Design the sequence.
C-alpha cells in the first residue's frame, strides 16, 4: 500500500525520493511502537509532512492521496486494519490519555447501559454521555475509539479536507491573484549602480574592520533596477472571460516601483501596425514608434489567448484593413506596405528578443493553428504560477 502511494506521489510530479519515503515509514513505525492510534487524519498529515517539502505541491499531494485512499479512508475500520497489517504492533483501538477504550461490540453495549442509567447532562469526564473529556460517548472529546452523539466532529476527515482543495492557491498550476503576480514580477531585476554617490555605512564598517580599525569611508551609488517593461494585453472577443485575470496582471505590474519604466498597451487578437493606449482603441501608437523609443533590452510581456481565425493572423489583406481603418485620418493608407500580423509578431520578437507570451487558456487547448504559430515565434507559457515563473526566467536570460 505504501509503496503504491509513493509511486503515485512521484507520478503526480512531486519531487519525493527514497529518503522521504523512509521518513514516512519510520514515523508510522514510531507510532506503532508507542501504541498511539493512527487515524485517517493523522496519517494524512504525517504523509504530507514526510513526502512533500514545498507547499506549492500540497494540492497535487491531496489529489494523489484522495485518488488512492478515497475508498479506504471512508471506512475507518478497513483503514486501521491495513495499517495494523504493516505495523504489527499497533492496536485497532487505543486509549487516549486515561480514557477507556472498547472493542466495537462492547462499545454499543456500554452505550446502551449509559443511556439507561444517565439522568442528567454531563460535561467532561470519562464515563457518561456528554461533551468534552475522554468519554467514549458524546462529542467534542478526545477519545478516538468512541462514538459521536450530537454536536460536530472535532476535526474534518482527511477525505473532506482533500475535497475542499484548500491548497489549490499554492499549486503552481493555479491561476494567480495580484499578490502572486507581484511576487513573481519582482524577480525581473537588472540592478545597476547609478546616481550621486552616497555614504555606505555597512560597507564602511566592513572596510574599517578589514583595515585593522583604520577608519575607511565608502561612498557608492545606489543600486536601481534599469529594466524597462512593456505589457501588451489582448482585449475583447474571446479574451472577455479572462479580463479579470489580465487586469490583475496589469495591477500587479503597475504597482511595482523598481522598474525603470513600465508601460501598458492594448491590442486585439494579434499585432498589426498599432498598439493602443486604451481598450476602446481610440489612441493608436504605431509599433514603429515603440521600436524607436525602446531598445533591445526592454522586456516585453504579451498576455492573450492567441486564438483567432487564421485569416486574421496570416493574411495581409486583413492586416491592411486594420491599418487603413485606424490610419486613414492620418495619411494615405494606400501608400503603406502592410505586413501580416504573423510577420509583425516575428519582427517584434526580433527587435525585442526578451519577449514572452502568457496564455490564460489551459495548455491542453493550445492545439489551435494560430496558437501554435505564435508559440513558435514567441516563447509561450500558461498564465499560472508555474508558467509565470518560467516566463520570468526566460525574460532574464542574457
Sequence:
Amino acid at each position: 500500500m505504501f509503496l503504491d502511494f509513493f509511486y503515485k506521489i512521484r507520478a503526480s510530479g512531486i519531487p519525493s525520493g527514497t529518503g522521504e519515503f523512509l521518513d514516512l515509514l519510520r514515523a508510522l513505525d514510531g507510532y506503532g511502537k508507542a501504541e498511539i492510534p493512527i487515524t485517517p487524519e493523522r496519517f494524512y498529515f504525517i504523509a504530507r509532512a514526510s513526502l512533500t517539502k514545498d507547499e506549492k505541491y500540497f494540492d497535487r499531494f491531496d489529489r494523489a492521496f484522495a485518488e488512492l485512499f478515497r475508498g479506504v479512508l471512508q471506512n475507518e475500520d478497513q483503514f486501521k486494519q491495513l495499517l495494523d497489517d504493516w505495523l504489527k504492533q499497533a492496536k485497532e483501538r487505543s486509549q487516549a490519555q486515561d480514557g477507556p477504550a472498547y472493542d466495537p461490540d462492547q462499545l454499543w453495549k456500554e452505550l446502551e447501559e449509559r443511556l439507561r442509567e444517565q439522568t442528567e447532562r454531563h460535561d467532561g469526564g470519562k464515563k457518561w454521555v456528554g461533551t468534552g473529556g475522554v468519554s467514549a460517548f458524546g462529542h467534542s472529546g478526545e477519545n478516538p475509539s468512541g462514538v459521536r452523539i450530537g454536536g460536530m466532529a472535532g476535526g474534518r476527515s482527511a477525505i473532506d479536507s482533500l475535497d475542499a482543495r484548500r491548497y489549490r492557491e499554492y499549486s503552481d498550476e493555479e491561476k494567480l491573484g495580484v499578490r502572486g503576480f507581484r511576487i513573481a514580477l519582482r524577480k525581473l531585476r537588472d540592478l545597476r549602480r547609478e546616481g550621486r554617490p552616497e555614504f555606505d555605512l555597512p560597507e564602511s564598517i566592513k572596510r574599517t574592520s578589514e583595515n585593522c580599525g583604520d577608519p575607511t569611508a565608502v561612498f557608492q551609488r545606489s543600486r536601481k533596477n534599469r529594466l524597462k517593461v512593456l505589457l501588451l494585453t489582448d482585449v475583447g472577443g474571446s479574451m472577455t472571460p479572462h479580463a479579470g485575470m489580465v487586469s490583475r496582471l496589469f495591477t500587479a505590474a503597475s504597482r511595482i516601483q523598481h522598474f525603470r519604466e513600465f508601460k501598458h498597451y492594448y491590442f486585439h487578437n494579434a499585432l498589426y501596425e498599432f498598439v493602443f493606449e486604451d481598450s476602446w482603441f481610440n489612441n493608436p501608437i504605431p509599433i514603429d514608434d515603440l521600436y524607436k523609443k525602446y531598445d533591445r533590452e526592454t522586456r516585453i510581456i504579451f498576455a492573450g489567448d492567441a486564438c483567432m481565425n487564421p485569416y486574421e493572423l496570416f493574411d495581409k489583406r486583413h492586416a491592411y484593413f486594420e491599418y487603413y481603418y485606424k490610419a486613414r485620418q492620418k495619411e494615405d493608407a494606400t501608400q503603406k506596405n502592410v505586413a501580416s500580423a504573423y510577420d509583425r509578431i516575428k519582427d517584434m520578437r526580433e527587435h525585442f528578443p526578451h519577449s514572452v507570451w502568457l496564455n490564460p487558456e489551459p495548455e491542453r487547448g493550445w492545439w489551435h493553428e494560430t496558437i501554435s504559430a505564435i508559440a513558435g515565434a514567441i516563447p509561450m507559457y500558461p498564465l499560472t504560477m508555474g508558467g509565470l515563473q518560467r516566463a520570468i526566467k526566460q525574460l532574464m536570460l542574457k
